[in-house]
Amino acid sequence: MKASRILLFILSVILILGLTWAVFPQGGIEVGGTTLRFASYEEASSSINEEAVDVDKVLSEVEQSFRLLSGSQQDTLRFFKNFLKSNPNRIWLPNDDYTYLDTLFHLFECAQEENKTYRIMHYGDSQIEMDRISSIIREHLQGIFGGNGNGLVPAIQSVSTYSLVQSATGDLTRYTLIGDSTTVRAEHNRYGLMTQLSQLSGEASISFRVSKNSNCQERAKKFSKVSLLIGNSSPGFRASLRCDTIRTESKVLKNAVQGVSLLTWDLPAYASKGTITLSGSAEIYGFLMDGESGIALDNAPLRGSSGTIFTRLSKSVMKQSFDLLDTRMIILQFGGNRAVSVSNEKHISNYLRQLEKQIDYFHEVAPNAEILFIGPSDMGRSVEGRVATIPMLPALNDSLKVMALSKGAAYWDLFNMMGGENSMVRWVKHSPPLASSDYIHFTTRGAEYVGMAFARAFEVCYNFYKLRQELDPEMVSAYMESEELSEVSFDDTGENDIDKILVGE
Question: In terms of residue numbers, what domain contains 10?
């Protein structure tokens, strides 16, 4: 075909579309219950919604808010009061009880002295896949309270992570509670803490090593303790471990064990890789890489989940596992997958009822653990030719907060930390991008900022706890309950480079 004819064809198509655009009713045409419409010229030609927060300003203020005020104790108390009551990055506490996390803080700060490891389980959707967000929180809290290693991981990992490279061979069959069409489900509900298990029926080996990925955090690069979490083991079940050049004594279960067992090897030195060799029959719920003591944080991503599946898991397996691992905090980060399908208040109410059952479930199977809910991020989609916040997302976020607090769980408002409505647009357009072009998922750098923002908020609560140990409780209570609330101005020194947040400058 001649170039002139091709050009004529293209121009004709453009002309037809232009005429259609001009005469098409602005409100659209109803066809079979569906409204068909063209975006107006103004909608189509306009840039992506710019009526959004300045991301650099948000993140720099997140950082600056952690620079505690100097001066008198009154000034310091004023800082904490303002943070807990008005800072967008605060952790919301049930009944505004600033002592809600005190027991947890006491355990954490005594962990090393008592040679114990206390765990945090971080459940979430695809936002935390690859150990994103979780690894940043883990690194920061281990820097405060001690600890090393990746924590609990499944025997067979379907999605690679920034922190660990692993493989499995032999007679292992993987079963998962959720997944795509290739998912193989078990004939029972004993999936364990990771909502998946590997059935051993013979001999197998699991090899693992610390990742060389630049996003692997420093404290995750070495461990001094390896444990194996199993259930329903056969008589004579055997597990052996070799780490680097370190050989350990084999663990042998002479008798069948119907419940959950934890087999632990304490290493004489730090290691960065290992192989677990197995023989017999057992349900392998995962293995753990930890330090001698301190904090461990386990990353459990559930792609596509809205956080409503946990009540389908065996209560006995979950309770035994949480008890054996001494899990003291459970983080639930959900809502994004449900937000895209919520279109009215009834949908929100139905979702809240489902989540209430999940929180009740965790209170039952992990009575020693505090529960903290992280709400959904801002997410955008095209609305009449422009990218804007999913319509019902702000209402969903507010409702999730009310629900969580009413059920005795803390809440971290990720949506408002980001800047609220339409902030995702700016996160995507930031240089470098902090979120991907789907206007849903964070980039690696964006996930780092989110993880650090949460870790810092947690640290503020801990610093307030430490301060209160030196003060008269009645005086603190009277001050916190007073109506006084003063604004804390950030130190405008020009140190607002968000890249400095990650390096702690």
Answer: 3-38
